[in-house]
Amino acid sequence: MSKHPLALLAVGAVFLLAGCGTEDAPAPESQAPVTQQSELLAACQDTEELAEVAEHSCTHAEYGPFESVTAAPYGSPSFVDVSVGHTAYNVTLPAIAYRQWTLGYAGSVIFTPEESTEYAFLTSGYRAVRIVNAATNEEVGLECRYQVPQEVCGSLRTAVTADLEGGIDYRVDFAAVVPQPATFLLVIEETAHDHAEE
Can you tell me the distance from the alpha carbon of 186 to that of 65, in angstroms, rounded to the nearest whole number? Predict the structure, then answer.
């Protein structure tokens, strides 16, 4: 009997992450589901700068260095660090299951930027993304979404950007409904950084 409340909690988390449910506006103090914010992002306007970031990140996505990590289960504390610069992370999201059914995939990693600036979170496919200050649990507003053109990089598909403060731990939440995007490549780069030098 004690497994049922946990299963219901897991099912609820999946529905929130998948954006299912009513279309009522959330209360001002409540957090938006992961997909709601990341799916409604406007397209980035400075595509030339982001194409340069994606091209540089593509080098890491194709040639490394690589590090494999399994994200912490969604809703639990995360100690999975993805802060090493110029590294491509192979991220695996844990399954959210109820009895014999897999309901979705969701997990969190921690990113601690060295500098206060705008960062791009580039991934090998589309999945829901949310960034939260790990200390205050305050959600960081994502600025825009960039679809990486095939001619710029065949290994990375999408990026979201956010202004982050240096030295602050951020929890980055990811969600996927089907197994294929539950394992993906993640590269995090500063957008203002001069990528031509490296």
Answer: 12
